Amino acid sequence: MAENFETPAKRYRIGEVVRHTPFTRQTIHNYTTMGLIQECGWTEGGHRLYDESVFERLKLIMDLRKTKTLSEIKTILLSSGNDS
Questions:
Q1: pTM of the entire structure?
Q2: Is 7 within the bounds of a domain?
Q3: In 10 A of CB 18, how many CB atoms?
Q4: Residue-wise pLDDT tens digits, 5-57
Q5: Is residue 52 in some structural domain?
């Protein structure tokens, strides 16, 4: 008898995010500190974890950086309700 279960969402450490994006570790840290992206949790060792949504968020930030400052981007993200 098969039971239903959900596969847990993948969580990415900062090094994995860096490997899959053009951003540096410091940039990811800065964007987190500024509130442009959010971690979804922490490892037992105190490392930040990000979910899959961070990649879409970083892509949006990268597109906005072509014409906007980080301060403007933060305002845009907050005003659009896209602050998570």
A1: 0.83
A2: no
A3: 16
A4: 777 789 999 999 999 999 999 999 999 999 999 999 999 999 999 999 999 99
A5: yes
